[in-house]
Amino acid sequence: MYDIVIIGAGTAGLTAAVYGARAGKSVLLLEENVYGGQILSAAEVENYPGIRRISGYEFAENLYRQALDLGAELKYEKALKIEEDGIGKTVHTNRGHHSGRTVILATGAKNRRLGLEREKELTGSGISYCATCDGAFYRGKDTAVVGGGNTALEDTLFLSGYCSRIYLIHRRDRFRGEETMVRILQEKENVTILLESEIIRLNGDKHLESVLVKNTNSGKIQEFPVSALFIAVGQEPDNRGFSDLVQLDEQGYVVSAENCHTGRKGFFSAGDCRTKEVRQLTTAASDGAVAALAACAYINTSDSVS
Fold it and tell me: Considering 3, 133, 155, 238, which one is annotated as catalytic?
């Protein structure tokens, strides 16, 4: 039986592994696909404290090596469900099962894609899902944001301080986000709002050069030269298999406070899969540390009582 089983090997999960292993606990990481999480798609990272510039791949690789060097184990298996048995928890996967005294859910969240041709290919080369991560790379350039919620509005406001022109594109005739934010953007001279519009094509060879936009009401098609497109149409957490153990909100995120407790003994949550205001590389790492230390405290308390 492992002391800590971590489901997900993104930044939060790997950081939790580092802290758990350094505390002398046995740690198992379970990852469905590839370690690193969303940061792997980042061409450059410039907003992580203490690191001036690093590629997303190198950041993930360094964190992975650090966790393994400290003694954590990684198995490429998809966690399907969890059962409790006394003080232990059994994580059933597509390849077997593993027991742990505690479980940290660090499953992350996947960005919803537009489903356009070459969208995946151009991700990191003009296509981004995080304006606060990548916006500064496009200082003085024309960019676009697609989405109708608060994230899209906030991204546009953020970019308005960097970019020459921002096209805010939304397929409906009104935004879902806060009206106050909409009014602020309407007054920005470098923001052009395109309602009842959808992107139908991405243009560019090795880097995004323009987007083709169709007005869904009139059918008119226009091409807008942009150096970047920031996609803000939501994220999709993958926590459905654990809904019988921990509380999920309406969007499927694990309900968890800043202490990363889930409300169920021995279960913790870290990173983008939990309810939180800010989803950034730094907050994922922070969650990983907090969740691991909480798991260690839970184990130590259980040992002292027994």
Answer: 133
